[in-house]
Design a protein that fits this description.
Radius of gyration: 22 Å
CATH class of the largest domain: Mainly Alpha
Largest sheet: 3 strands, antiparallel
CATH superfamily of the largest domain: Intergrase catalytic core
Number of strands: 5
Number of helices: 14
Helix content: 40-55%
Amino acid sequence: MSLEPIDPETALDLYLTDREHEVSQATIYSHSSRLGHFVRWCDREDITNLNDLTGRILHRYRLWRREEGNLEPVTEKTQMDTLRVFIRWLESIDGVSPDLHTKVLSPALGENENVRTVMLDPDRAKAILSFLAKFEYASRPHVVLTLLWHTMMRVGAARSLDLEDYDPDEQYIHVVHRPETGTPIKNQEGGQRFIALSEEVCTVLNDWTETTREDITEESGRQPLLTTEVGRAHTTTLRGDCYRYTRPCVIDAACPEKRDIESCPATAYGSASSCPTSRSPHAVRRGAITYALNQDWPKPAVSDRANVSEGVLDRHYDQRTEREKMEQRREYLSHL
C-alpha cells in the first residue's frame, strides 16, 4: 500500500476540521489539547512524516507522555484513547500503516478507576451564585453559572443557545443541534430537548437579554444567547467564567491552599484553571446532578434534563455516598 506523506501539524488540523461538524465543540477542544502533546513530541523527536510511525514509536510516546505529564492511569487512558482515534482516522486517508491504531496501548482500569469525583459542592454553588447576584448581577459569568447549575447542561450546549431558544413567557430553554452553522451538541439530535426554567433563573436571563447582552447577529442570521463584544462566546470563554468564579479567593477572600493571594499565579485572568480548588464546567454539572438526586429528583427526570443515560448517570455523575442513598430509601419503609 502506498502512503501519502503528511506532517503532524497538518494532520491534526485536517483531523479537527473533518470532525468539527460531527462532534461538540467541547470534544474538538479536548482532542486538540490532548493531541497537541503528540504533535509537540513529534517535533521534539524530529518526526516530520507520520508515514514513519510504528507501534514501537507510539509506545515511546506513551512512556514519555506518562512521565512528562506525571499522569494518573485514568488520564493516560483518556489521552491514549484519543490518540488511537486519531491514528485510525489517519489510516482512512493513507497517512499511516493499516491497522496501526491497534498498536496504540492504554492502561486497563479497575471498575471504579475511570470515575471522576471532582464536583462543585452545593453550598459553594449557592455562595457563588449569591456573590454574582450581588456584585455582578446579570453579567455573562452570572448567567453562565446560573444556567449550568440549574439546567445541568454541558458547556457546549450552553454555547449553542440562541436568543430565540429562550422563551421567557413559557419559561424554558430549547437545546438544538445545529452543526451546519457551527454549534453541534453532544449526542447530536439525541441531545435536543426542552428544559424548564424557574422564575428565578428567568429573571436573571431576562435582565441579561434586556440590559447586558451584546447585540450580536452572526452571518447565518443567528443571534447567540451568550455573547462577548466580538460574537458568540467561545467554549474557552465559558470555561474561563467557571474557573474564575469558582476560585475560593474570589468569593471568600481566603485560600484553602494557604497561598498568598497577592502573589498567587492562579489569580491572573487567564490562569484560573491552575487553582487547585477552582472547578470546570463539568464539575459544575456533576455537582448539580448529584444535588438534584440528593433532593429526591427521580433518576429519569435527572437523566432527561441533563441528557445522560441512567447507566452513565450512576457510574459517572451520581456522587452520593452509600449512606446518603440508604437514608433516602428510608422514607419508603412505610410503604412496605
